[in-house]
Amino acid sequence: MTKTLALLLAATLMTTAIAAPPALAQSRDDQGEARKEMRAGNVLPLREIERRVVSPLKAQGHEYLGPAYDSTAMAYRLKFIKDGRVSFIDVDARTGRILQRSR
Question: What span, in angstroms and rounded, lies between the C-alpha atoms of 75 and 13?
Answer without folding.
Answer: 24
